[in-house]
Every structure is written in C-alpha cells, then in structure tokens.
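Q: Structure for this?
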Amino acid sequence: MKRFDPYLPVLGVVALIVLWYVAVWAQVVDPVLLPPPTDTFRAMWTGMTKGKLGSDFMHTVERTVYATAIAAVIAIPLGIFLGASERLYRSVEFVIDFFRSTPASAMFPLFLVLFGVGDRTKISVAAFGAALVILFNVAYGVMNARKTRLLAAKAMGASRLRILMDVMLLESLPQTFVGLRNGVSLALVIVVVAEMFIGSTDGLGNRVFEAQQLFAMPDMYAAIFAAGALGYGLNLLFLLVERRFVHWAGK
Amino acid sequence: MLTPAAEVKSGRAAGGSAPAHVTVRGLCKSFGSAAVYHDFDLDIPRGKLVSVFGPNGCGKSTLINMIAGLIPPDAGEILFDGKPLSQIKFGYVFQNYREALFPWLRSLENIEYPLKLMGMPKAERRARVERLVAHLGVKIDLTKYPYLLSGGQQQLVSIMRALVVEPEILFLDEPFSALDYEMTLFMREQLQRIFMETGTTTVLVSHDLEEAVYLADRVLLLSRHPARIADFVRYETPRPRTDETLSHPDFVATKAHCLEIFQREVRRA
C-alpha cells in the first residue's frame, strides 16, 4: 500500500470536488450561489485563455512580485545590519513588532494620501507589510547564528566583515527564506484586498469583486481559485529555490 | 599545603626540560563574582602534547579559549615565543564539529577556508590540502558536504582545517566527546599519528583521564576555581602508544597518580 502514498494529497482534492457535486445535486445551497464544479472550471479556463481573468491574474502577479522584491531589497540588508548587533535590534524591536502587528490594511488611507490612487499605493502597502515580516526573520536569523561557527571563523582569523559575509549571512539564509515565504503570502493578501477597493480596475481582487457584483458566480469562484493557485504557487516557488540554495537547512 | 608560588614553580619545572613555547603570566578571569583564574602562570613546552584535565567547571576550556584568543582575559599576558597571538598561526578544534564546520561549503572548501582568509590563490590552496590529505592518509570523500559525513569524519575534517595552515600550536577542546566509543578510539589513533607526523605543540582539553594520559607528554591537572596547577605530570612513554600501553605499569601508575590528585582537588570543595 505504501506505493500509493505519493498520491495521498490527491484524495483531499477529489473528496472536495465530490462533496461539491453532492452539495449541488442535493441543492443544499441556492444553485445560483453554488454552481457545479464543471461550470466553475470552464469559467476559469475560458477566463484564463480568452477572458479578462488571465490579464487580471498577471496584474496581481506583477504587483505581488514588485512588492516582495522591494520589501526584500530593503529588509534583507537592514535585517542583517540590525541583527549583527543584538543590542541595536533590541532597541528597535518594539517598533518593528508593533508595526508588524498592525494590520497593513489599516495603512491604506495613509498610503493613498501619500501615493494617490493607483499601483504605487497597492505595491507600497504590500511592500510595507512584507518588509517587516522579512526584516524580523532576517534579523533573527543573523542573531541566532551558531556561536561556535562564529568562534570558528574568528579562530581562523576572519575579520568582522568576513564573519558577517561568510558566516552570518549564510547562517541567516534558512530564516531569511521563512521570511520571504511569509512576506510574499502577506503581500498577496494585501494586493488582493487593495485591488477590491480604492478605485481599482484590474487584478484578481477586482475580478472577484466585480463577478460578485454582477452575480457571475462561476467567474467569482474561478477568480478565487486563481488567487489560491497563485498564493500556493508563489510559496512553492520560494520553497524550491530554498531547497536549491539552502541545501543544508535542517541538517 | 603548597604555597601558590611553590606550585607555580613545580608547574614550570615540569615543562622546564623542553623550552617553553607558550608563556602565560598573571592570567585573571572572572565570570560574574566567580574568579575562575587569578594570577595564573603556565608554561607550555614546545613540541609536546599537553592534556588539560580537572574537575567539572574548573575552567579547562576557558583556559585554552583565552590562550587561543576566543575569550578575552581580564588581565595577564599570553605570549608565543615572546610574540602575541596575532603574529602566529594556530589551529583550533571544537567539541561540536557539527556547529564548527560550515555546512554550505564542501568538506574540501571547509579545509581550504583558513587559507582563503590568508589570501592564498585557489590552485595553491588545492595543492596544500592535497598534500595534507596525502600526508595524513585520510580516506574521506572531501567533495561531500560535511553533514553527509559521519561524526568522526566531520571531526577529522575539522582537525584538517586546523592543520592546513601549518599551525605553530594546535588547540583541541574535548574533540572526541561527541563521538561514540568506537569512533573515539579510532580518532585517538588519528590524533596520535598526526602529532607524531607534525610534532606541533598541542593542547588537548579532555574529560576522560585515560585519554588525557594516553595521548599526553604532560598532563596539566587543574584545581577547582580559582584554578591553580594542581600538578603538571610527565608521561614519557615513547610513541606510538598502543592498546598494550594502557596496561603498562608506567601508564597505570601515571593514571593512578593523576586520579589521586584529581580526587584530592574534587574533595577540597
């Protein structure tokens, strides 16, 4: 039976679809609110190939990638800098934790005032949220560098800069990837929410919202699944990159 | 009871026949209110293997960490042929090889790393490592990452990393404590061979008296803190020492003597 183990994850998907069919067949929910899976997947296929869903998907990808990239470019060097001195990090820890705990959606009005209606606001709020998550993880990764490894480098005569570049940076990589994965997930959440409101005309959030307004339920579900697939795919992408470059993690 | 001065003298006398390589004078170190070292003097003879042994928490590791510059002493002077640490090459082997090696580098690159720090070109580094490997007769696939090697192999990589710079002095902090018994016995032989091949002044911290005596030319017995030299015992059975050495009257007597001093120091507390 063990050889079927790799297919176990498929079971949940099949069960969900069966359950969905049963719910539609038994009319548990108003058919208008819950279309059958076939209609939904057809809407997804046509939307992605011919309709607007494809371009909305790409807009959301673009914003999320920009936001995460900006966040990473700012947060990784800053995290290393702060993490390299534990006392320095302790002195800004409260500020970081406070804003990390603040819902980024509460910052929309402020960023709207700063950047106006448009992509700049969406991307910068998402980048803000993601940056704090990445920053916190990178700093902890650097601070938790194995003391023995730092001492070993010191004993071999490495300068402080060399220790930072050759040891601390690499030691923090596994934790940095945890930060990047969490950061990209958060950025996607913020981008999708931003696309639903504040004068948006495209993106997956906008697609979901518009479909709901028009009562085009298969389209709405299709957009929701597209967003889910995007989130899952981004996470998987980072995981694969991590396995490739941080081969020693957990060993 | 010996006065501190007399003890110091006996300590120096033991190392006296061989010229001193490392001289420690007036070393002081406190952790919080506990004085681990107070006005501590020691001579480490050249080309000898010195085992450091003593009660738990007496500061064995602290001593070699201070000599190797990993912990700053509060006061005192440590010189190597009259030179400070910054002017000499030394190697250091940690107990925890898993955390001491760099898992992102292959074993070979780990061994090369200190040479890289010295700014040696790549080709020369490779040649140097190859020479060392041939010299020690090491049979490990060094293209593997350290975490793919066994514990003993990883510690051997650590030792090679320490040796590759051709150090004037080698420090080992309980290098075999994290290995199983079989591997420990094997590694003792490896270390003995390395010492016979290179003749590098070596300081070995050990928590195993048999190991400490078996490998040593001198056994440095420390008291509880503030640490004094309880005794600096000579053990001059010629190398290579083997399993038979362990039952030789000389070895048994030396070990018994060390144990007696150790027990005396433990009871003193």
